[in-house]
Amino acid sequence: MISLSGFWRLFAFLSWPTPALVAMVVLSAAVLIAGPRVLLRALGVRRARIVAPVARIVAAVFGLWFASGLLVRLVAPKADPLYDTWRIVSLSPLPAPVIAALSVVAAVMAFLARGSLRGDSMGPRRRLATMLRVAVALALVLLVTEPGRRLLQTTRIKNRVALLLDKSASMGFPEKPGGDSRAQAVASFLSRSSSDLSRLAQRFTLEFYGFDRDVEPIDSARIADPLDAKGGRTDILGAVRSVAANGASAGRKLSGVILLSDGTDNVELHEGLTSKAKDALSDLGAPVDTIAVGSGGLRDLAIERVAVEDFAFVRNTVTVEAIIKAHGIPAQTIDVVLRREGRLVATTPVQLNWNKDTYSAKFSFIPDQTGQFVYTVAAPIFPEEAVTTNNARSFVLKVIRDRVRVLFVVGHPSWDERFIRGLLRQDPNVDLISFFILRSSGNNPKVMREDELSLIPFPVNEIFREQLHTFDLVILQNFAHRDRAYEMDRYLPDMRDYVHEGGALVMIGGENAFGEGKYQDTPLGDALPVEGTGQAPTTENFQARLTPEGRRHPVTQAALSAGEAERVWADMPPLSGINVTRAKPGAQVLLEDPFLNVDGKNAPVVAVWDYGRGRVMAVTADSSWHWAFPALASGSAVRPYDRFWGNAIRWLVRDPQLTPVRLQADKAAVEPGDAISATVSAHGSDYGPAPGAQISVELVDADQGRTVARNQVTAGPDGNARVEFTPPAPGPYRIVAHATKGETPLGDAEDAVAVRAAGPELSDASPRPELLKAISDATGGRSVELDKASLLDLPLVDPEVVEVGQRRDEPLWDRWYSLAIIAGAVGLEWLLRRRWGFI
Amino acid sequence: LPALNRRQFLKAAAGTAILVPGARAFAFGDESRFRPAIVQHGGNWNARPTALRRLCWEVAGRTSIEVYPEARPFDPEDRELFYFPFAYLGGEGAFPPLTEAAVTNLRRYLTYGGFILADANDGSDGDGLDASFRREMARILPGNQLTHLSQDHVVFKSYYLLDHHAGRLLVRPYLEAAMLGARAAVVYSHNDLAGAWARDEQGDWEFEVSPGGEAQRETAFRTGVNLVMYAMCLDYKEDAVHVPFIMKRRR
Structure pTM? Predict the structure, then answer.
């Protein structure tokens, strides 16, 4: 027989022979008709009056039950290979309200039949007649409802259960000290559980996945082989989401996820199970059962992460916090060090205790140079550590200026000084430190006591030796280094070295500057782009003229466009005399005296050059303030003087926006095994893109200072080029680019990149069973340790999905016996009523 | 303070002779030196013709500021005034209203960085030069009225540490100023500073100073030196490096 479904299963156990069922129905009817009280008395049961109604109800329930079973037996279809289940349905074309109304009519009819026998004292007769009338009414209802048998062809779809196996690198560590790897332990467990898996497979479709940062399916035949644990990250939430989504499109429900992992998540659940992650997990609607792999005991000291801003301000304190994890390391004090490209920056002792595994090491230091640098926090390596590459962690710090710190040293207060100071003081990007010599040795202020004056001693040693390196720019205006009062000669070598090492210098003309100040005989003279000629300063007024180099150079861009800048310079008020100098080879003359010839060239008014890593500008006039104040006499809104000095300062301190070649690494820190890539932008001397520029790029080991790789690229139409280096060994690197266009060098640029020794996966490889438990708790799953796990004990959602393929309806009411029952019941009732004299 | 003796006078005279240039108008660097301009208003604008030269002489002798001591008179309409960022406006008695062009020029001069020292040579207060100057200031800087210059202002510590102000007279013991931002663009004295500075060809002071005598004259010079220093160095003495020294000395 075809199996029953749904409600009809209630009768499925009625496998008694049909005659027995008929006998039970007849017995129940007899009890109801004869009246149980009579029977009970005959059987000698006391208190029959009380027991009888109960017996009647029992007889009615059993009678109906057996009658229904008999009916099912009668209507059940024969076995059919096409259909696997069936149900009773109504085949009537009448709408449901009509059927309901007719049924009500039938019930009323049965009730009236009972009423017509009210006067009869013979209880059994009345009950028999009532039963017959009810049978007639039921038969009529059958006729109306047209019951049918619906044969169904169904398919059962099993729900999915996903087994997620961690294959991140941390699974390569021993499961227990000296034991197999965690991945091996998982493989052994699955091998042991093959019969459990087979039993699960009967109820569910089992899917096997390996995961690390990504998820990929695993052949179920190969699950007993240990996975190749090399993944650089563990993303549990991502993996769970991914497998849940996999089957959703196929309409297959997920009954649960069984996760076998050490729990070393380092993506979304790195900080633990956040409320957002909890919500994501509970949205799955299926339990995530977790089997925790690894039981601790790992011996490892790791710099798990380093907390530091991406950039810092030069000469301002930077704080770096390293989070250190220690497992199995004896209690002791260790020295954690911070290095900048091989140079020790700071050391912090950390006390390890037996009852703690997370520590913090804080470092404070003051970067004294702008640029990008690779810093490394390193802890000592202990014998038998599981991972030694995680004992150091590198990061790149971009050191920038908050404000340009300018030292302004003036030999005599003058109008030139007045307008430069006024300009620099109002520039919010400039931190101005001024020293003006207000009284020289020949002056007599006519005071009884020095404290009648506001003068302070000139702190020569402090500013030119101790603090010199803290300045981005030094401006010397008509400053006499030969004045014995402050013995400047002692400090001139320091100043030259300061410029050579990356500082910036401006010398402004006057009777104590350049040749007149005998600077060419001093070490600082080496740093100047011009040298004195021995010729006396000129006194004639002249209009400074922009040179071809000046037209392109950012310093002399006194207006937004080059053409306008030329016009602005041509309209400038005249200057009155200059220190007569000649430009040194390599210097760029930006403005010149059109009337004064020195060695066949016009005498420079503004000249610039790079000296070592620093930059220098010479202004040979002492009346550049004419560009500031008389230039505005007409009320012009153009402020060429402000623009000139603004440009000059930005160029002198190497504002990144004014460098012709720029280099930007894609990532400041590269995980082990990843390539280093960068974009180089080349600009011409006019600061426009330089397409076709030849760019040679070197990868330099910043610790050792040696080049480890070279690359040659050509700039595209936008002046940009991409460069990539194959993954180098861990450590700090500098990428150095040098661009040329034809024979002309365009400039250099560099950036820093840290290649990490240990990726996040190995930064802390200790198992996190508490995270796995939290995941299970959040989803209604169960978390167990690998040793104690049994797949069959894990809670999984168990509904089956049934789909209907084909169906066939067979009417039941038009059988001969249904008509025979109606005719028989009506005839018998009529016969009895007539016999009993009711008709 | 000691009065000048004969030897000092001779030295001063010699210094003056050296400082006053001969045939050549400018040497290299002269353009950046301190050389005052005098505003030629329509009244008696040159009541103290020797005063500024004497002030320049004192500035050169007392400080490292290099001077070109011949003050240059200017029509206030003249744009050449912009080559002289320090201008002196003095006089005795009222003067007629400035032309509109002069007002515009002076406004621009002050706005872009010029400095005017106004000095009531007649010691007037509510009349005379005082009334005319206030009238013109209301036109030149309409939104920036003259106010009492606080004793904390950097003018009082730009070279000498001063706690009071006086000129030939002591009409008002304070200075007034018109501020443009943090900068005092115009400083005004009621006390005839130039009267205290003026010295004739023979080396004699042209005016008696009252009520404080020679000490008051020295105060006038110190005020003048501080004003010149302020015009050239702005708020230099308010830089952080100077503050502890000055506070210690003022204590």
Answer: 0.63
